Amino acid sequence: MLNQFQKIGLLANNNTSIVDTFEKLIHFLTKGGYDLVVESQMANLFSKNHFFTAEREDLGKHCDLVIVVGGDGTLLNAARAVVSYQVPIVGINRGRLGFLADILPEHMEKELNLILNGHYIEEKRFLLDTTIIRHDRVVDHGIGLNDVVLYSGNIARMVDFEVYINELFVLRQQADGIITATPTGSTAYALSAGGPILYPTLNAMTMTPMCPHTFSSRPIVIDSLSQVKLMVSPENKTMPKLSCDGQLHFDLQPGDQILIKRHKHELTLIHPSQHEYFSVLREKLGWSTHQIKG
User: Fold this and answer.
1) pTM value?
2) Catalytic residue annotation
3) DSSP state for residue 47 in the 8-state scheme
4) Of 90, 118, 146, which residue constitutes the final position of a domain?
């Protein structure tokens, strides 16, 4: 659809090293006649500006597309901030991997011109909603696009916990922790822990133990509509922690319960029209590009 995006939100990792890319982006969009809404902290890096600004948590309220400049971590942060407004996101990669932010700065104007004129691929990615319950009372809440991780904290000792899926007991385990990941997060921390790669649009999530104290413990793939409950053993000797996307961190206590379920809103992620997932995997994971010719 031609010109479906008119008011564009801009968000970056608030690092001076990306100012040059950000300035080029602003110039390109202003020249194209688009209305811009710049995230407040990033706008502060420019001494003279005439932008309409908004706090990160409110950015999605004012625009119909968000462009993120930075790495995948910046996009994860942006996703949590705007998902409730159902605003699509596109990423300009100034980070290392670029699984999510996949437009290179040198191709930015060409690729964005195509996207802004309706030539793109759209993907829906679900997030995980996490609730921490202590003594039958909700004490914290978080969401993650990649994963929710129960881990042992700063002490090199294992966590003793139980896993339930849809209120059915699965196992009791001692481990460094466990990673509950979306398909988006299956190529992140969970992959490093030996978890499987899930195609991004699958309605499934993975649970991958971290250094379990048993050789028989393996990752498991479950339906994305399942509710996961993790119970930290009351006899646990450490004070473990919980993280969402490795960016939000919560202190836990023995006896805490963690409820994890699919978030009610999905993120709309936009890619250039030539985007192809297996090509991304080959490039980012160093897979062979050799094909046998018949």
Assistant:
1) 0.93
2) 72
3) S
4) 118
